[in-house]
Amino acid sequence: MPETQRSTIDIDEVERFSALAAEWWNPNGKFRPLHKFNPVRLAYIRDQIANRFGRDPRAARPLAGLRILDIGCGGGLLCEPMARLGADVVGADASETNIEVAKLHAAEAKVDIDYRATTAEALAAAGEEFDVILNMEVVEHVPDMPFFVGVCAEMVKPGGIMFVATINRTFKALALAIVGAEIVLRWLPRGTHQFGKLVRPDELEKALRDAGMAVADRTGVTYNPIADRWNRSTDMDVNYMLLAEKHSAA
Q1: Most distant CA pair in the chain: distance in Å?
Q2: pLDDT tens digits, residue range 156-207?
Q3: Surface-to-core class of residue 73, CB atoms within 10 Å of its CB (0-12 exposed, 13-18 middle, 19+ buried)
Q4: What are the Cα distances from residue 54, in Å, to 43, 59, 70, 200?
Q5: 81: which of 1, 68, 71, 214 is 20 to 30 A away, CA to CA?
């Protein structure tokens, strides 16, 4: 496909999530799994950023002075806590409906976030750069994962980092994340995930390496049904997160 025709956007996916936009901030609604998932990913993000940039994770605003992009931000579930931790946050999503929901909620919560209805390639073309990019639960929804990862990597400053969270393409993930979560338990709308678009860690790591990023950390995330809580784990068979860094310029 010619470079000028490539896109990071899958229109069907954008329309699917736009139709659910009103549910973003309902902890018992269709995005309940993300609300449950948020504490473990927030803790991981905060602690890793603090470690990489020499910050105290227990400080009131440990991310002060850092510019963060949440690409595919949806309704802003990650943007708001990042802003409260002191970061200068840009939240970008291809869905204008999602962005309007995010803006409204941020205004009500009195949180200052720069929300934009735009794409990764548009931000990169404009020369935007960030200390940290949050690429969370997005790569399994784009039409060309390596291209998308490459575009995002362009925007990471030298010495900066990118987090990527997604779902592994395994039969275990098919059973738990699609059949279990979407069909049996109905935690997510049916069709939220397509098995063929799920991403194995080796595929994601190759895309990151090809984009000039080095994987610095990896972790699985598993669900404990008794405690009704997500926890970090060595098990990356279903949900997992990677941290990649761009080496500083010589």
Answers
A1: 53
A2: 999 999 999 999 999 999 998 888 877 776 777 777 889 999 999 999 999 9
A3: buried
A4: 16, 12, 21, 31
A5: 214
